[in-house]
Design goal:
two-stranded antiparallel sheet; 4 strands; 31% helix
């Protein structure tokens, strides 16, 4: 099992502010509407990643920086689901289970502008099926949302697009 962001050994790592300003994501990665903001270093890495994609594929940034109150709302919403699904788990176990999917506020990279949620799109702007919708919980995705989940289905590997949601 990977070490979760809620693990005390993660929270114990000192954080040094790199003094990077929050900037809008590169225009060619932004979804329609207001451009999400991220740390300048993240924006630079997104621009490079975009250039390295195969022809006909693009990154679309769904979310970047989150306000602390938004992070807490996501945490509490999912924690309620975990509590409902695991009523016999004690508080520490419910926190661990919740942190499999949502970072606790004190270590949440989105709050620092240091994380992005992205999807891959084709040349027409349609999302490529990567095996699970963005933001699908472990329960909703059958575990396919994990970073080390098995390779998605053949359709995803071939670049097929997901059906509209």
């Amino acid at each position: 099992m990977p070490v979760l962001l809620a693990d005390p050994q993660i929270a114990a790592v000192p954080v040094d502010d790199a003094d990077e300003p929050l900037v809008p994501v590169p225009a060619d990665t932004a979804a329609p509407g207001p451009r999400p903001v991220v740390r300048s270093g993240v924006a630079a890495r997104l621009a490079v990643a975009q250039l390295l994609l195969p022809p006909g594929r693009r990154l679309r940034v769904v979310e970047g920086h989150r306000r602390p109150e938004d992070q807490l709302a996501i945490w509490h919403r999912y924690a309620a689901d975990v509590a409902r699904d695991h009523p016999l788990a004690d508080a520490a176990e419910q926190r661990r289970l919740t942190s499999r999917f949502v970072s606790p506020l004190e270590v949440a990279p989105h709050v620092a502008g240091a994380a992005v949620d992205v999807v891959l799109v084709d040349r027409l702007g349609r999302e490529v099926d990567l095996g699970t919708p963005v933001d699908a919980t472990p329960e909703q995705s059958g575990g396919a949302c994990w970073t080390d989940a098995p390779v998605p289905a053949r359709r995803a590997r071939s670049g097929g697009c997901s059906s509209p949601r």
